[in-house]
């Protein structure tokens, strides 16, 4: 008997968190992309780029899209967001509801088409950005402007880990809906999963 979406999420979410805790989470002193110092770091690429991690990310982020306005594509911000967009797009095709992937460059290429957005993007397309980690939200907001300049309408953000340092609030203040699969509490506290994504996932 086929699993419902809720059942898939209930199994996939703790499995992905286990991989992130094992492969991606580190304690120490780190300087983040925002310039802030932190006593922990989560390198999601080490998990996402494993075969199992890729499958789990695709399942969970695609399900999370259902909490946002309907989109025509998912966009990953280079570098960490690119495999997320690919995983979501692949999973959508396997489920029979294809959603194309886009890659957003941090700077235009100095050769070829000099594109800042890679993939099939048409003017007016509604796009959801997929991110690995959000701290201040600055890089995501820059990606929003890049996509808008290319003709897209950004309708929301799905993030793997929200560090709870103001980033999600900054995105919401910019009019974007944000869905986080995990927060810092899932890593720095010995507690059950934070407010569960499955609470908002339909059974069908």
Provide tags for this entry.
204 residues, alpha/beta, 6-stranded mixed beta sheet, two-stranded antiparallel ribbon, 8 strands, 36% helix, 25% strand, globular, disordered C terminus
Shape: globular
Total strands: the figure is 8
Distance between the termini: 13 Å
User: Mind telling me the C-alpha Rg?
Assistant: 16 Å
Largest sheet: 6 strands, mixed
Question: How confident overall, as mean pLDDT?
Answer: 89
Order of helices and strands: HEEHHEHEEEHEHEH
Question: How many distinct helices?
Answer: 7
Strand fraction band?
15-25%
Helical/strand content category: alpha/beta
Instruction: Give the helix level as a range of percent.
Output: 25-40%
What ranges have pLDDT less than 50 throughout 5 or more consecutive residues?
198-204
Spatial order of strands in the largest sheet: 5-4-3-6-7-8
């Amino acid at each position: 008997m086929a699993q419902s979406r809720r059942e898939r999420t209930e199994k996939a979410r703790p499995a992905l968190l286990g991989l992130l805790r094992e492969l991606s989470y580190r304690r120490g002193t780190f300087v983040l992309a925002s310039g802030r110092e932190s006593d922990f770091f989560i390198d999601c690429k080490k998990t996402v780029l494993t075969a199992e991690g890729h499958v789990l990310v695709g399942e969970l982020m695609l399900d999370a899209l259902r909490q946002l306005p309907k989109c025509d594509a998912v966009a990953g911000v280079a570098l960490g967001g690119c495999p997320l967009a690919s995983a979501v797009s692949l999973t959508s095709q396997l489920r029979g509801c294809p959603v194309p992937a886009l890659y957003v460059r941090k700077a235009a290429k100095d050769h070829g088409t000099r594109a800042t957005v890679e993939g099939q993007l048409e003017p007016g397309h509604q796009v959801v950005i997929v991110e690995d980690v959000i701290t201040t939200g600055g890089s995501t907001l820059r990606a929003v402007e890049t996509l808008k300049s290319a003709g897209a309408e950004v309708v929301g953000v799905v993030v793997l880990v929200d560090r709870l340092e103001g980033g999600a609030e900054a995105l919401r203040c910019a009019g974007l809906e944000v869905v986080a699969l995990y927060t810092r509490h899932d890593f720095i506290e010995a507690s059950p999963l934070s407010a569960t994504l499955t609470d908002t996932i339909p059974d069908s």
